[in-house]
Amino acid sequence: MAKFMTRLLFLKRLSLLHSFMLLCVVTLVAVLAVITMEFAWAEKLRLRFGETDWVMPSLVTAVLLTVATGIVTMAVLFYRWKLKRPLELLKRASENISANDLDFRISYDSQDEMGELIKLFENMRSQLEKNLKTLWRSVEERKQINAIFAHDLRTPLSVLKGNAELLATYLPEKKLSEEKVLDLIHTMNLHILRLESYAEAMNSIQRLEDVPLNIQSMDTISLTAFLDGSAEQIAKQYGIRFVSSVEYDNASVHVDPYLVMQIFENIVANGARYAASQLNVHYDVQGGIMKITVSEDGPGFSDEALSKAILPFYRGEVWDSSEHRGLGLYVCKVFCEKQEGSLQIANGPDGGGSVTASIGTQVDK
To answer: pTM for the full model?
Structure first.
């Protein structure tokens, strides 16, 4: 048995040329043996029937048939031994690739040229699969980025629209003070800068994690006032009351105001969507951490939402899925982590959901 296995392994190591030469030799030996037998048979016929006209033509015909049979048999054996299985494997693999199905493996246990060819084909398939997965991830990440930007553009546009309507309604009647007008224009300019930043970022980033940080120094009062302005617009859209509270010393913080705004607007919009009548925002700036807690008086998070709400594209029980793509809290989580912070969700002791965004910041007293 061991000798048989050794010979079998030896045959598998033979190249196509050596295999062909081996079959030629074996076929030649077999053909010569048969031809020798045919000559012996012809000699017996001659001795039995004497010199006749049909013995020699019969011998020539038999020899030619033997040679032809030997050639055909050698070709068939060579095809079945060395070519049939690898060609079938390559054909099936080619059909799978043509059908965009790369989830398969191809292997051939021979070490001849066909075995090497199949190894190269498998390497090509593996590389194609890797490239396709990379391309698919890139496309999905880009789609996610586009969906996130579309989601986050709605709030600054709503603020601009609301302020423009306010100016158009009350400015001609001179019901707005100069200070109020300048404040509205300042707010509109800030949101225009946000839109410009969005447009520039969309052309340069491929993943959400690639969003650049633009750290600026802002005093806490101005920052929270800027955030409250957006929260009031969001609460107004949903017809609920907005209440803000602050806990901090007079300080300046070093943060990216636009990323903070995106985090804030996402958790506020999420809270407003489920609030029954009131939305609460609490700011706490202490010890190098800025915490923004948004709570509402709605039904709160379900057990499933508590574990899955920050996952991308999680929607839960959403009444308007066309406007809610399940990206808001996931965006907040990523942006908080980019600023050395975190995002926590919970239910309040008296009911209602609560989301806390923690953002790392250096504080100047």
So the answer is: 0.52
